[in-house]
Amino acid sequence: MMELQAIKTTKRALRRFLLDAQHLLHPLKAGEPASLPRRVLKLIQDLECVQIDPVSAVRPNQQLVLAARLPDFKPDVLNQLLKENLIFEYYANAASIIPMQDYPLFQPVRERLKKHLLPELKKLEDVARGVLRRLEDEGPLPAKAFRSDQRVHGYWDNQNATTKATSHALNLLMDIGEIRVVYRDGQHRLFDLTVRSVPRPLLEEAKRIDPASAREALLEKYLRAYRVFEPGDPRFGWQKMSAKERREAIDQRVKAGKILPVCIAGLKTEYYILAEDKERLLDIEAAVPAADFEEDDPIFFLPPLDNLLWSRKRLADLFDFHYRWEIYTPPAKRQYGYYAMPILAGDRLIGRIDPRLDKKNRRLHVQLLQIEPGVERTDVLMANINRALRAFAERHGATAVTVASEGRLIEI
After folding, report:
1. What's residue 204's pLDDT?
2. Which of 69, 225, 323, 354 could staple 48 via S-S, CB 3.0–4.6 A?
């Protein structure tokens, strides 16, 4: 096949294309409550997956990602979709919510983890067998339903053995695909047998799928999720790939006419898009407005693991925005805060907020409100941000907002 020619564009057009693909350039409209689960499922399908994280300064990451794009999003919808077996949790861009239709694509990942984890699971063979027996007899159960006095080294306690043997067995069985999360009650997960909770046609397809075909389909899913990508990403394809293999995967697709390079003036890194997205990019480029953002543009607050933020390099290259999640930075060395959320206005990231939700008192505390150098802090812009903060607070159950500014608390 003929190799497609590179497309020349601008940073601004490419970032607007990326925002449009991720439903952040234009806000989605609220719909009928009865249709909300299906709209949430469609959004997850469009994004390909949504990353899960238990940290809940306001709400867990997966809820904040979806709420930023759907103004009437409700957290319990995810549980409804889990119970209806329309989504599942597994490793894509780290632990993620994934449409159930993609279950077979992850069979090589499950097989690889099974091979890697088998020695560890062998040590807990009796415990794991007991877990599976109880799930088979009793149905979905939370981790706390399994009692054990035995303590082992889990995934996160390498120094001292503090993890319950049953909890570690649950994590291992989930990673190899024997069980899955079917419900979440706050931070507590309910598990059930995979053979009972994944639709049978998908289980059969997973058994039959050719590993090479599954890996190829998983790589294609990654490309659709990132939309603007480059082979330097160590998570490329969401599977174990060397730098050479990543480069070859790109080159093969360029030669086959499936993707094409994008040349951006002033950038050393060459990015790529799907060939099918070329016209969409060109249409967006032709309609780029004069200003980066208007003072009254919709404001979005993005959580640290939002899909837009997956590639810090892409963020710096296209948005001129340098972001680091400081959750693991010692408090004294933090610049922006434990849970700093970028502020998106129009097609620019204009600052950060560091919020905490006080659920008991129904108050949102914004410990830092930072505006980027070069962004004029006008009265109109700040009023727009304040409106967005009030809406953000209400969406997550708060009735008041306080913003720490120059040592003072300002109620808005």
Report:
1. 98
2. 225
Per DSSP, the residues of 107-165 read HHHHHHHHHHHHHHHHHTHHHHHHHHHHHHHH-SEEGGGS----EE--SS-SSS--EEH
Task: Order across the sheet with 188-193: list the strands.
Answer: 141-142, 188-193, 179-185
What tokens appear for 291 in the block?
Answer: 């200003």
On whether the CB atoms of residues 295 and 302 are closer than 8 A, the answer is no
d(CA 108, CA 124): 23
Q: Positive or negative CA dihedral for 46, 52, 56, 57? A: negative
Query: Which residues, in sequence order, are CB contacts of 133 under 8 Å at separation 6+?
Result: none
286-312 as b/e, with b when 16 or more CB fall inside 10 Å? eeeeeebbebebbbbbbbbbbbbbbbe
pLDDT in tens, 26-78: 877 777 666 899 999 999 999 999 999 989 999 999 999 999 999 899 999 99
DSSP 277: G
3-state SS assignment for residue 281: helix
pLDDT of residue 407: 62
Supply the pLDDT for residue 275.
Answer: 96
pLDDT for residue 156: 76
Task: State the Cα–Cα distance between residues 218 and 288, nearest whole angstrom.
Answer: 33
Residues in the chain with pLDDT values less than 70 = 1-4, 32-34, 406-412
Q: What share of the chain is helix, strand, coil (3-state, %, to 5)?
A: 45, 20, 35
